[in-house]
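Appendix B: complex inputs.
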Amino acid sequence: QLNDAITIIVFGASGDLAGKKTYPALFNLYSTGVLPKKVHITGYARSDLSREEYVKRITAHLKINSDSDKQKLDEFLKITDYTQGQYDQDESWKTLDKHIEELEQERDLGKGQKNRLFYMALPPSVFLPVATGLSKFVYSSEGRNRIVIEKPFGKDLESSTQLAKDLGELFKEDEIYRIDHYLGKEMVKNIMTLRFANMFLGPMWSAESIDNVQITLKEPFGTEGRGGYFDEYNIIRDVMQNHLLQVFSLVAMEKPTGRDPESIRDAKVDLLRHVKPITLEDSLLGQYVANNDKPGYKDDDTVPEDSICPTFATLVLWIENERWKKVPFILKAGKGLDNAKVEVRIQFKDTPKGSLYEGAVRNELVLRIQPGEAIYFKFNNKRPGLSQQIITTDLDLTYKDRYKDMRVPDAYEGLILDVLRSDHSNFVRDDELDAAWRIFTPLLHKIERDRIEPKPYPYGSRGPKELDAFVKKYGVVRRSDV
Ligand code: BG6
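Resulting structure:
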C-alpha cells in the first residue's frame, strides 16, 4: 500500500474514457489495497449530475461478482464524489480548489501531504484551458502536483511542439505524465525483460539474423460514432505515431544504461532520432468500404463524402544505425479488418543457399500483445520417428496456460500506479514526442496536401488487395507463400 495522501481529480468524469478505463482502474487499485489510506477521488465535469447518476456512470463498467466485491464498492464510493464545473471559468476553478481544501481538512492533511493528481480524461480541445485553470487556481503549494494527459498530443510536429511549450509553461516536465496506454500492457512491459534478461537473444537481435520485423494492430470494428474525431486524426495519428511506435521503440532500442525512467527514455529517443522520416513510397494506405450489412467509413454521417482519411496503413520504417541496417520495420494498423490482433512478429533470415538445410521454413518469434498474451517461436524440428523430414513447430508460452492463477491487470491500472509512485518509465517524454512526430509529419502533410487516395478494402477483410505484394517487396514471407 502506498503511503502518501492524495486527492485524485478526474476531469471528464462523466465521459466514456473515465467510465471505461479510469474508474475501473482506480477501483481495482482500491480493492487490491494499493491506494493510500488517505485517498480521495473527485470527479469533475460540465454535466450536471446527481450523486445517483454519477455513481451509475462510474460503476457501469466495474466487475462486481461477489459479496466482497460489493462491500469493496460501497467503501470505494465513500471515498469519491462529484463536482460540476466549467473548463474555462475562474469561478469554477476557485470553487474546485475550495472543495479540495475541505476534503484535505477532513482527512487532516498537513503541510507536504496535500498532494493533488489531476487526471485529464478529456478531449484535446480543452487540455490547455483546463491545465491553465489548474496551474493558476488549483495547484497545491503544500504538496506534490501531478497532471496526467491522454493522447492525442498534437497533430504534427509543429502543433505538438506548441502544446509541449504551452504545457511546459504551466507544469514542470516531471509533473507531467503523458499516457500511452500501450506502455501499460503486460506484453509491452515484458519486452525489455525478454530482450535484456535472456542472454541467448542478444546476439540474434540485429540485422545479422533478422530479416524483417512486423508490428501489427488489427481491429475488427470501424470508427462508428467517432467519425468526427477520426477524420481529423486518421489511423496513423490514432494508433501508429503513438502505440505502435512505442512498441517499435522497445523492440529496436539499444540497451539502456540503466532501468531507471530517464535511461529508458533516453534509449528510445536515441533510437527515434535514427529513424528516417517515412516516405509515401514506403506506405500503403487504405479505407474500408461497405460489405454486406457493414457500413463503409464514408457512410458515417460525421465523415465528409470525399474523405481521403486512411483507416488502414502499412508503413515501413528504416533505422539508420549499425544494428538495423537494411532491416524493414513494417508497421501495420487498421480498422474494419477481419480480426482483432496486436502482435510483434520478428522474421529471421533464411538458411543460407547451399547450406545443409537450405529452404527450411524461416524462424519467427511472435510476441502477442492481445488478445491473450503469448510468446511463441516457430522453429524447425526433425519429425519424430524413422524419418528425416523437417516439421515446423512452435515453442509456445501462452500466458493463460502457463500462468494460470495470475491476473493480468488492465494497462491503466499499472499506469495510474506508476503515476502515484512518480515513476515516469512508462510515460512519454517531451523530446520523445518530438522525435516521434518528426518521423511521421512529412508523410501526413503529403497525404493531406496532395490528397492521396487510400485504396478501398471491404469491411471485415485483411486490408487492401495490394497488401501482400506490398509487404513482399520488403522480404516478408507469409506462411501461405511457403
Ligand atoms: C486508442 C485509439 O488510443 O487505442 C482507438 O484511439 C483504438 O482507436 C485503441 O481502438 C486501441 O486500444 P486497445 O487497448 O483497445 O488495443
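Residues 181, 219, 238-239, 342 surround 6-O-phosphono-beta-D-glucopyranose (CB under 6 Å).
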